[in-house]
Amino acid sequence: MQEVRSKPEGCGTAAAGYGDRVAILRPVVPDDSREIASLLRENRDFMAPFEPLRDERFFTSEGQRERIEESSSASFAIIFDSAIVGGVTISDLLYGPFRSAKLGYWVAKRLSGRGLATGAVSEAVEIAFGELDLHRLEAGTLVDNVASQRVLEKNRFERIGLARRYLQIAGEWQDHFLYQRTAD
Ligand SMILES: CC(C)(COP(=O)(O)OP(=O)(O)OC[C@H]1O[C@@H](n2cnc3c(N)ncnc32)[C@H](O)[C@@H]1OP(=O)(O)O)[C@@H](O)C(=O)NCCC(=O)NCCS
After folding, report:
1. pTM for the full predicted model
2. Is the CB of 141 within 6 Å of ligand 1?
3. Confidence band (pLDDT; 50, 70, 90) for 3?
4. Domain limits of the chain?
5. Ligand 1, pocket-test mutation among 40, 151, 156, 157, most atoms within 8 A of CB
6. CA–CA dist 169, 97 (Å, integer)
7. Which of 38, 67, 102, 153 has the highest count of CB atoms within 10 angstroms of its CB?
8. Which pLDDT does position 184 carry in this prediction?
9. Which residue has the higher pLDDT, 11 or 104?
10. From the CB of residue 130, how many other CB atoms can be counted at a distance below 10 Å?
11. Best mutation site among 22, 76, 106 for ligand 1, i.e. most ligand atoms within 8 A of its Cβ?
């Protein structure tokens, strides 16, 4: 996925408008690490119920730089008003007869409810089924994460089931609704 991250032009830079709101995705680069770490610190309490347990290094520029440099995922920053306000990750890419990957996303609390996640996921779907040549995207939400479920449903993901004790979130093995979207 290095190729995707290092090639901003033509890679998710088109605006996806929802009403008068606009979100733009661009590949994350190591020099974003300070801005991302700062945003993560600002949203630490907000994100904690939806995230694996994080160590202190995760919230530092150095920790984020390591993650960006070592990531095998396609990682994108969500840009709004020229600032990074969240992120989208397409991870666990499998090709062969599967051509499937997992989708994750988040938006800073202070900008929630503006359609930014919905627009960002829309762009990510285009990238996944376009230049990444995938056939399927999968996403999972906590069963009570209705906002995230709305984001997926508005992007024509279908709920495919309940996975019990699917993922360790906030230190507990938690049930998730699984969703998928296949290429049209
Ligand atoms: C979930 C999250 C991505 C939503 O981001 P966002 O930019 O606010 O999402 P959008 O504005 O595009 O859409 C949110 C939708 O959820 C709805 N919503 C928000 N809170 C809701 C609630 N408590 N109950 C029902 N619907 C809710 C909004 O009304 C909107 O739907 P609508 O357009 O039909 O009205 C963001 O809150 C977040 O990052 N949360 C923490 C991390 C997380 O949950 N990530 C996803 C992991 S699966």
Report:
1. 0.91
2. yes
3. very low
4. 2-138
5. 151
6. 30
7. 67
8. 83
9. 104
10. 13
11. 106
